[in-house]
Amino acid sequence: TTLDTYQALRVPEIWIYDRQKLSIYCLEGNAYRLSDESLVFPALAIAEMVPQWIEQAEKIGTRKMLKQLRQIAL
Fold it and tell me: Are 47 and 22 in contact (CB under 8 A)?
C-alpha cells in the first residue's frame, strides 16, 4: 500500500485527502495510526481546516484562496 512506502522511508506523518475528508496518519514504531491531530501542527484543527481551504480554492481559485489565507495568518 501507499502507507507501506512511506513507512519504509520513515515519514512521520501522512495526510490523505479523499471525498472532502482529511485523514492524518502518524508513524508510531513501525506502523501508522489514524490521528485526530497533526504532529506538525498540534495546536491547529488541520483535519477540519484543510477541507475548507480546498473547497474554497475550488470555488474562487487557488490563488485567491491562498491570498485570503495569508491575510488571515498575518
Answer: yes
